[in-house]
Every structure is written in C-alpha cells, then in structure tokens.
Design a protein that fits this description.
About 25% of the residues lie in helices and about 30% in strands. The chain is an alpha+beta fold and about 350 residues long. It binds pyridoxal-5'-phosphate.
C-alpha cells in the first residue's frame, strides 16, 4: 500500500477550521485539505494530504476537452461512541475502478483508495457532524491531465479527494419528478453504468426544463423504446406496487447504487418483498391512478431516501402519489440511517472504521 505523505501546513489548516452553521446543507462547506495522487509512467507515483486549493491545469489538458474523468460519492458517519466509520467504501472503490476501466483510465488499488479516503476522514474527524443523518461527504475523482489536443487516452492523471461536512440533500419535502420522454442520457453499450461527468452533463438540459416546470428531479427512460424507467440524474428509483417494492433491474445504462443495494438488502431482511425487474413508466402511472402504486422514492448517497410526491408527464399531467410520505420508504430510510450512524447493528462489512489519529 502507498503511504500518504502528510503535509504539516494541511494539518495546521484543518485543525483550526470550524463550521458554525446549524444548516449545513449539501456540499456547501469543504474541508481545507485534500488528498492528491499523481499517475505517470504507468503507475501511481505518490499520495499527498495537502491544503485545499485551486488546481493548475494546462488549458490543453485532455479532461477539459474530452471529458476523461470519473468520480465517486461516499459518506463517513460519527457513531454514538464518537468513533467514525465509512459506509460500504469497498463498493465505491470497486465502482471507481469499473468506471476507470470504461473510461480508459488507470485503476487505483482498492487498498490505496480506501487508505486515502480513510486518511482524509481521520484528519477531518472534528468536522464530522453529530446529528443523525449528517455526515462527512467524500468526493474522490480522477481527471486526465496529459497535455495535447489529440483525441486519445491520457497517460497522466490526477486523483483527488475533497471532503464536505454535509446535511441532507433535499430540504425535506417530497420530490416532484419530471418524466423525460424525449432526451436520452445514455445508450446501451455506452457509459451509463460509469460514474463519469458525461452522464451528468447530458442530464443538465433536462434538469433546467424540470426546474422550470416546478419539479425537482428528471426521470430517465431507456433510450431504445423510451418506455422503461432507468433512474434519476443522480439517484436510483423505487416504487411500491401492490405492496411489493419494485426497482428497475440493473443494466449498463443504470448506475449500480450502493444505497439501492443497501435498501434492497434491508427490505429483504425486514421481510418486505422486493422485485428487480423491467418497470415501464406506463405501468407505474397506471398503478398510481388505480391506487395500486401507493408510494415511490428515490435513493442515493447524497439523498439517502426521499419520497416522491408526484410524476409530471410530457403533456404536464400530474400524477400524485397517494402516500407522499411513503410508509415503506420511510421505514427503510430510518433503518438505513440508524445503521449508518451506528445506532443499529450493521450487517457484516457495512461499516468501515477509520483509525483515530489524536493529532
Ligand atoms: C446516476 C446516479 N444514479 C444513482 C446514484 C445512487 O448511487 P449511490 O447510492 O451509490 O450514491 C447516483 C449517485 O451516486 C447517481 O449519480
């Protein structure tokens, strides 16, 4: 495993840093330190913990033109005994490398990825909020830094982790979903399963439309038949139909969410029936109208689990969910939050303790 070099000025900066804001919000504050690793000559050269600051990039760096970049999103929680724990970080490490392979980028050995995440978390321990549902959000990412305008994979990369003490992503209201029937975000054989900027860039035009129509989230349908639900721009989707929890089967156009997997596992442990299958938007809307789809929710690391209030179709017809504070979704959310916060026994391997530095 590669050692992370700790720069004393980074330690001094983070030690002095405090946040006095009861409304942390999501991604509003960033810790004044970051992990940085350089890849060159076919290997990861070094890992450093540095003061947070702007990057100096040559204007011809490949990431700026061809979008060769990937990222992750994960959380670190404070437990009642004051110890801190990452939530299922191995899953993020594996997904990061899956994204890296698809984007012709170098993998990071899982132990180096975990050690880097653990190191920045340890130095941010005093910034990890105590309140239930709050956490330290980690954003590891990798960019192509080779200079040159030729379209080919970079040979040089930068891996960075920044950390943001965060509260909830949504203010608390149920989410209004806009069904995108025209634009597509990614196609079979493409990059949908990878966590790479291009998927999000492709979603932003619809996001603007979604907001203009008074909704909060865009729902993406499959790009071939424009019929089957895939996911939101940054979250996975669940509906409760005939008392069963249903979610679209994973394909190469859907991100394999850590929260999605955890919700399925928690639901099954609670003896709630879960179906992973193709789920058409028309089936869901019909079931909403017939009162058989009583609730629906989105889930993701940032959003945790948020109930859906309504779906808006292309013709602006609104389909309201009967239970916009969904009982089942909230039950699963509470269980997940309790596990993450160390207030309920976690299944084997779900929490990953971060060593205490006492620095
Ligand atoms: C497109 C997309 N789908 C789903 C998710 C949920 O994934 P996870 O639960 O791993 O955060 C995210 C967030 O990371 C996302 O960006």
């Amino acid at each position: 495993m590669k050692k992370v070099e700790i720069h004393p000025d980074a330690v001094e900066r983070v030690k002095k840093f405090t946040i006095n804001d009861p409304q942390l919000g999501f991604g509003k504050y960033v810790a004044p330190i970051m992990i940085q690793a350089l890849y060159d000559h076919g290997e990861w050269q070094r890992f450093d913990l540095l003061p947070y600051g702007p990057l100096q990039l040559d204007p011809c760096s490949k990431v700026l033109h061809y979008g060769q970049e990937i990222f992750e999103g994960m959380k670190v929680f404070r437990h009642p005994d004051d110890s801190i724990h990452m939530f299922r970080p191995e899953m993020n490490a594996r997904r990061f490398n899956l994204s890296a392979r698809r984007m012709a980028m170098p993998e990071i050995p899982e132990e180096d990825y975990l050690n880097a995440c653990s190191t920045i978390s340890a130095y941010c321990k005093h910034l990890i909020p105590k309140r239930l549902g709050e956490s330290l959000y980690l954003r590891p990412f990798m960019i192509a830094t080779e200079v040159g305008l030729g379209i080919k994979p970079s040979k040089q990369f930068l891996f960075i982790i920044v950390a943001s003490p965060s509260g909830s992503y949504f203010a608390g209201d149920a989410v209004k979903v806009y069904i995108e029937r025209d634009d597509i975000r990614c196609a079979p054989g493409g990059i949908g399963f990878a966590k790479t900027g291009g998927n999000y860039a492709a979603s932003l035009n619809s996001y603007a439309k979604t907001i203009q129509l008074g909704c909060d989230q865009t729902m993406w349908l499959d790009s071939v038949e424009h019929k089957y639900i895939e996911e939101m721009s940054g979250m996975n989707f669940f509906a409760v139909i005939d008392n069963k929890v249903v979610t679209p089967t994973l394909t190469d156009t859907i991100l394999d969410g850590v929260t999605r997997k955890s919700i399925i596992d928690i639901a099954r442990a609670e003896k709630i029936e879960v179906e992973e299958r193709k789920l058409s938007i028309d089936e869901v809307l019909k079931a909403v109208q017939e009162g058989r789809c009583t609730e629906a929710f989105v889930c993701g690391t940032a959003a945790v689990v948020a109930p859906i209030a309504s779906f808006m179709d292309k013709d602006q017809t609104v389909y309201k969910l009967r239970d916009s504070q969904g009982k089942i979704g909230m039950q699963l959310r509470e269980k997940l939050i309790a596990i993450q916060a160390g207030r309920f026994d976690a299944p084997q391997g779900w929490t990953y303790p971060v060593r205490d530095l006492n620095f």
